[in-house]
Amino acid sequence: MANIEQQLPAIIFIDDEADIRSAVSQLFKLEELPCVTTANPGDVLSRISTAFNGIVITDMHMPALNGLELLQKIHAIDAEIPVVMLTGYGAVSLAVKAMQQGAYDFLEKPFDNDHLIEVSRRALEKRHLVLENRQLKAAVEREQQPGLRILGQSPAMQQLRRTLDAVINAPADVLIYGETGTGKELVARYLHEQSDRRQHNFVAINCGAIPEQLIESELFGAEAGAFTGADKKRIGKFEFANGGTLLLDEIESTPLSLQVKLLRVLEERKVTRLGSNQAIDLDIRVIAASKADLKQLASTGEFRSDLYYRLSLVDLHLPALRQRKDDVFLLFSHFARIAAARFHKEYIPLQSAELQQLAQHPWPGNVRELRNMAERYVLMGADIAFNQQPHKAEHGITGNMSLQQRVEYYEKMLLEEALNQHKGAIKAVMTELDLPRKTLYDKMAKYQLTRRDFMDKHED
Q1: Strand order in 245-249's β-sheet?
Q2: Which of 139, 170, 202 is the last residue of a domain?
Q3: Region of residue 363 (left: phi > 0; alpha: psi -120 to 50; beta: else)
Q4: Same domain (yes/no): 186, 310
Q5: Residues 135 and 161 reside in one and the same domain
Q6: pLDDT tens digits along 317-375
Q7: Are 370 and 361 in contact (CB under 8 A)?
Q8: What is the 3-state secondary structure (H, E, C) of the chain?
Q9: Which domain does 54 fall in, by range?
Q10: How many domains does the chain have?
Q11: For residue 7, is pLDDT > 70?
């Protein structure tokens, strides 16, 4: 486990004797264990929740609230918060009762400082593992649910997932920026499928792929006879997506004349078919996607500024693959395994030279290019797949990186390959790389690798 002293927040120590609180505070400070002391047990209940990443150490006999009563109240909030009980009376019956009610440990005053530190460290580690297991269980449950996943452990992707989780059910339209191939539609579908709108339609329309004279009827719909060739009623994309999500891809391509009408629909949440006077109420989330800087286009008059500001309540910026190189191997492995299952082929782990090529490639086509390459690799093998790269990196990982950075980069790739080959089985990875368990876990923590990223997962 990583340095627990740096990871865990305060120990809460409760005692009505000021001298004891002061001595214990100094003791924990010397051991670099953060501690908060108080004489009021009521303070504790306002500090803790199910997310509390610490422990409580409390005296058994206090005027306001005795230790057993406090233990019950703490465990009513979270039964897995470790509570260590202290007493100056050495009453065996109290110790037994406290342990029966779920106390983590029981120490008699005057306690031995080294023993208190040892018990506290063990209790902190237990709490840390409880919360880590809860997070892992929640992540596994989320990933086992039908729907898409946003893969990647780079800082940019971790921040993207945090933002997505924050707005997943917010009644707000979203604007997604990203180069071609970065996964704008994937993110839009993720927002829909993880939200409470998932029982309704997800509708995507590429605004740049529809002729100008047809896009209005495509979006808003049309009654029969509304224009030449309209021989029957047509349901528009807004209406078809009602209750769900509408993705307007390449929104920058919409004609300025249509942008006025789009703005009205977004503001009023009503749409009227061409040739009709009856407005249809909309309950819809609109996601716009663009590879262009709409703010810049608005400043030059190429895009309506009022529409831009209406769309940009939530802005999501998808990084190019060259900006998240740490995720390249994880994504390649993911796509290759999916392809292997679909094409009934064996997935053969990459060799060092192929890993190096992945690291060096500039990925002008972003994730889409990477996925195509992974599929070619499964279908035709490394020689063909890697020789078909349209561009070769001129500098690769040797660019401006120091020797230490290059070594770390290569070490991370080797760890990922071993974890991938053994599907996250730690013992097998330890054997292959000849690493002790602690060293392996330390290196995985250093590179933000988790075994669950490499375990077999059903692809929906």
Answers
A1: 202-206, 245-249, 285-290, 174-177, 314-317
A2: 139
A3: left
A4: yes
A5: no
A6: 999 999 998 888 888 988 888 888 888 888 888 887 788 888 888 898 899 999 989 98
A7: no
A8: CCCHHHHCCCEEEECCCHHHHHHHHHHHHHCCCCEEEECCHHHHHHHCCCCCCCCEEEECCCCCCCHHHHHHHHHHHCCCCCEEEEECCCCHHHHHHHHHCCCCEEEECCCCHHHHHHHHHHHHHHHHHHHHHHHHHHHHHHHHCCCCCCCCCCHHHHHHHHHHHHHCCCCCCEEEECCCCCCHHHHHHHHHHCCCCCCCCEEEEECCCCCHHHHHHHHHCECCCCCCCCCCCECCHHHHCCCCEEEEECHHHCCHHHHHHHHHHHHHCEEECECCCCEEECCCEEEEEECCCHHHHHHCCCCCHHHHHHHCCEEEECCCHHHCHHHHHHHHHHHHHHHHHHHCCCCCCCCHHHHHHHHHCCCCCHHHHHHHHHHHHHHHCHHHHHHCCCCCCCCHHHCCCCHHHHHHHHHHHHHHHHHHHCCCCHHHHHHHHCCCHHHHHHHHHHCCCCHHHHCCCCCC
A9: 4-139
A10: 3
A11: no
pLDDT, position 134: 75
- Domain check: are 163 and 298 in the same one? yes
pLDDT at residue 393 above 50? Answer: no
Looking at 294, 319, 344, which one is the last position of a domain?
A: 319
The CATH number that applies at residue 243 is 3.40.50.300
Calculate Rg over the CA atoms of the chain: 29
Taking the model in full, what pTM does it have? 0.56
| pLDDT at residue 398 in the model | 46
Answer whether 248's CB lies under 8 Å from 258's CB: no
- Statement to judge: residues 282 and 190 lie in one domain: yes
Q: Which of 145-159, 189-203, 391-405 comes out lowest in average pLDDT?
A: 391-405
What amino acid is encoded at 167 in this protein?
V
Q: What is the domain-level CATH number for residue 100?
A: 3.40.50.2300
The answer to whether residue 460 sits within a structural domain is no
CA nearest to 139, candidates 165, 118, 121: 165
What is the model's pLDDT at position 91? 63
